[in-house]
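Example for reference:
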Amino acid sequence: GTLHQSVMPDLGYALPLTGPGQSRLEQIQLDPNMGWIVSVDETYVFSPIGVRLEVETRFSGAAANFYRYRAATQPLASIDDDYLAYYTGRYPGIRRLSPLSFQDDRAQNKVRFTETYMIPTPALFENGLRESFAFVASDWGTYFPDAQIGPRQYPLAIGGHRRHSHNIQVRNAPIKFITPDRHRISNDAFLFEFEGRTGWNNSMTLNWQFRTRNEVVPREMAKDVIRDANRISDYVSFTWDLTPEH
């Protein structure tokens, strides 16, 4: 996964303060519409001086609560450095154009981070970056176990409701793109969809959608769900050779 994906916290149990049944703990349940909701938009604009990258990440529901808490307890500059380190690992030579922007809409329970970077043209010619330029979304399959060894005795607990979207816009690229085929993985536990489209002036759009369906999967179906989750990693990272055709 990436820094834009985090595990939804287990809220555990609490003792009700009012109403009947105050003698025992009850599990805290989240409204499905207020689960872990994350939307990421990345925009890559190519120019003679390099590639400008703008990233807007919107958190809603439980995700907004988590990142609001993180921003309140960790210096924003430290979060900014974490994000820069993530992109530096993918694009050596990238540099920050402006500090991380943090906006908090408590009325709507939404939090937004905005990042702005530049990959200078010389960096594209180093470390083989131009010949293997990657566009990447999170691997949401990591929400599930890596494997199942032997028969399962208990149902597979997925946790709270999660919904992710990741959209990449590429503009004015030096090549004409051929996008990967559309892909869809659907089962009782989750839905995963990927679609790529090309447009005018060497532009491209890549879009991923992921959402969970049921919080618990029957044990007899768990093996198939884990197998499907492992397949997600095949469709969340794609690379292109950006060497212009002469």
